[in-house]
Write a structure and sequence with these properties.
It is a single chain. The strands form two sheets. Strands 1-2-3-6 form a four-stranded parallel sheet. The protein has a two-stranded antiparallel ribbon with strand order 4-5. The longest helix is centred in the N-terminal third of the chain and has 12 residues, at 12-23. The chain has a single domain (2-115), classed as Glutaredoxin (3-Layer(aba) Sandwich). By secondary structure, the chain is α/β, with parallel strands linked by helices. The protein contains five helices and six strands. The protein has helices at residues 12-23, 25-30, 43-53, 66-70, 100-110; strands at residues 2-5, 35-39, 58-62, 74-79, 82-87, 121-124.
Amino acid sequence: MVLYFYPKDATRGCTIEANQFTQFINEFEQLDTVIFGVSKDDCASHVDFINKFNLKVGLLADTEGAMCEAYGVWQEKERNGVRKTGIVRYTFCRVRCFSRRACAGRARKDKTMVNSLQPPMYAIDK
């Protein structure tokens, strides 16, 4: 399973990332790997995002931020002297690679990916 966190549905960078995962979805499926994106947006926003861009990745609604907190991605950050709290942008990959395609190919060789779930969307709400 690939779990990635992103700040907001339908924003430029987040859309590019979701579209890139969608572009390589068949390669991940061949590895029995599912992809889930997590943001603090609600389910309705996720449905609109999926439909607008024909996304093939699952999206999890972490509206209260429990997953973001648990994975340590919701932090205070500073840019140009302005401090705010949000998703910290790091890239995590079990194998060293420079593209998602390289990651998928390397994972196929090393068998490091884990198989799991299949639903298109889950909600994490109280």
